[in-house]
Specification:
By secondary structure, this protein is an alpha/beta fold. Helices cover 32% and strands 19% of the residues. The protein is built from 11 helices and 14 strands. It has an 8-stranded mixed β-sheet with strand order 2-1-3-4-5-6-9-10, with helices on both faces. The termini are far apart. The structure holds succinic acid. The site of succinic acid has 12 residues, from loops.
């Protein structure tokens, strides 16, 4: 081969290799678009000193301050924020839930939103998460996050929680798993999780059932997925609702009478969740008030104040005879949410019992 042919062949080879490199090179990974919806809570709180971990003010910092406080967010997602509410979560209402859920559904319907993070106070975080789990109409990740210490405190937990919740909301691993709760390196299903300790960072647990997974560094690791129906598989549609049927919780204890049930019936409740003793027991003294409530169309769900275990149908009460709904293993505050949504469809106890088995 002469020198000229050699040069031409070399140039052709180089061109072919370059073309291959261009064609088969992996495109740089696109950062997910994650929307952060803020509702208040300790994660947006402020304390007088760096050691103030009780007695601080919740729901002070606006969403942009939360985002700017974690500059690392920009490396993992295209984040933008919206302030949906600015409340301590003990003041959460059905109206805020409806506003929040409608906004979540609107955003997730957009092609340019991959996932949502909701910052929230920890007191009712599990309730908001379970409500959304039943009414969000998308498989895209929704992650509810909070913190037990305000951002002004030493060892504040909110920044890392927000960072990891954002990773989760932009991850493919979280797709289709329902609304998730992420605090303290641990990923929970919204149906199962509950706040178990008044003041420590490891407060969120799923008694008996356990978490779905954990964070190891920046990586979410899932070990299981929720089996109860959620999000796109539910029958609940809040898109045209401006209010939810009123449901309250009655706590049972020694020496209890039916006086609270009578008062609630007079107040016009549509449903009562009875947080019974043991396996959801109802005291004899409560029955007259319960039967009077039922005559006015009030649906009674038997739940338990115990915090663990299944309330067995026809176990500690004759549910068939009294037309009660057995609340499965939902805690009373979550049973209240399912009952409210169930009552948007029907007030037939058998149909509602079916929903308590499915969700
Ligand atoms: C709240 O729930 O808003 C206050 C408590 C907290 O966020 O930990």
């Amino acid at each position: 081969m002469n020198r000229k042919t050699y040069c031409v062949l070399t140039i052709i080879c180089l061109l072919v290799f370059s073309l291959q490199a261009i064609c088969f090179a992996e495109a740089p990974a696109r950062l997910p678009n994650v929307k952060i919806l803020a509702t208040g809570g300790t994660i947006a709180g402020s304390g007088a000193t760096s050691t103030t971990t009780v007695g601080y003010t919740a729901a002070v910092a606006p969403v942009d301050a939360l985002i700017n406080n974690v500059p690392e967010l920009k490396k993992i997602a295209n984040v933008s924020g919206e302030q949906v509410a600015q409340i301590a979560s003990e003041n959460m209402t059905n109206e805020v839930w409806l506003t929040l859920a409608k906004r979540v559904n609107q955003l997730l319907a957009q092609d340019d939103v991959d996932g949502i993070v909701i910052t929230h106070g920890t007191d009712t975080l599990e309730e908001t998460a379970y409500f959304l789990n039943l009414v969000v109409k998308s498989n895209k990740p929704v992650v509810v996050v909070g913190s037990m210490r305000p951002p002004t405190a030493m060892s504040a937990d909110g920044m890392l929680n927000l960072y990891r919740a954002t990773i989760l909301a932009g991850s493919k691993e979280a797709v289709g798993k329902g609304v998730l709760v992420m605090l303290n390196d641990t990923i929970h299903a919204s149906r199962d999780v509950t706040k178990t300790i008044t003041d420590r960072v490891d407060t969120f647990r799923a008694p008996e059932i356990g978490p779905l997974g954990f964070f190891t560094g920046d990586k979410p690791e899932f070990y299981r997925a929720p089996l109860r129906k959620h999000t796109t598989d539910t029958e609940f549609d809040i898109s045209r609702l401006n209010a939810l049927p009123r449901v309250d919780i009655v706590y049972h204890y020694a020496n209890n009478t039916g006086v609270v049930i009578e008062a609630l019936t007079q107040a016009g409740v549509k449903g009562i969740v009875h947080a019974g003793t043991g396996n959801g027991s109802i005291g004899k003294a409560e029955y007259p008030a319960i039967e009077a409530a039922q005559k006015k169309g009030v649906v009674i769900v038997r739940s338990a104040r115990v915090g663990n275990g299944i309330v067995a149908r026809n176990g500690e009460a004759n549910d068939d005879k009294y037309n009660f709904v057995a609340g499965d293993n939902l805690n009373p505050q979550k049973a209240r949410i399912l009952l409210m949504l169930a009552l948007t469809k029907t007030n037939n106890p058998q149909d509602i019992q079916r929903m308590f088995r499915e969700y």
